Amino acid sequence: MVCAGVCLLLCLLCSDVVLAESNGVDINTLRKIIDYFQAKFSPGENKPYGVAINVHQDYCSSKFDSIQDRFLPNDTQQAVQKGLKKSFYKGQELMAAKTVAMKVQKLSVRAEYILLYPPNPSKSPLQVLLDRTEPDSCVVFYTLTAPCVRTCANVNGPYSLLPGLDLLTKYQGPKAFVFSQPWNGDEDASGSLKEIDQHVPLYRCTHQCVACRGSQGDDPINKECIN
Question: A Pfam family for this UniProt protein (predicted)?
Fold first, then answer.
C-alpha cells in the first residue's frame, strides 16, 4: 500500500511538471533559443532585427537539448541571412525581419512592426505563422531591442505594436515575447513593458532570461528588464 501511494504521488508530481511546461515556455530553454537566433540569424552586431517562430512545444521545453539538431530544419542560416539582406525572410516555421531605415522624415520601420502588420491586404507574417499552429505548438516572438516607449508600446502611439500583439493574446499555447537590449530613451519604460506583458508573457534574455513581471496582475516590472 505504501509503495502504491508513493508511486501515485510520483505520477502526480510528474503530471504537474508536464502541465507546467505545456502551459508556458521553459525559461532556461528560452535562453538557448535566443542564443540560437543570435548565432544564426543576427544581421550584425547591434543591428536591430526580429524573429517569430512556431515550433512543436517540445522545443520550448527542457527536452530542447536532446532534439536541438532538428530545430528549424527548413529555415537554414543561409536562407534567413539572405532574406534579411533584403529586410525580410518568410519561412516554414520562422519569419524574420530587420529594421529598415526610410528616407522620408528620417524614420525607421522597426522589425517588430514588419512582423506584426500586413502589407495590405495580405495577412501579417505573424498571422501566417499562427495559421500553421497545431494543438502542440509553441510561439516565440523575439526582438533585439525593447519596443520604443512613445510610439511602439503605447496604445495611442501612431505606430503601436499592441493591436498586432492581440494575435498572441488570443493564442492559447506556450508563448513568449522576448528582447535582449533595454529601451535606451529617456522615458520610463516600465509602463510600456507592462502593456506588452498584458498581451503576452514578456522576458528579457541576455546571459540568462528573466520574466519581466510576476504571475500577479499588479506585480511591478522587473528592474532587470528596464536597465
Answer: SNAD1
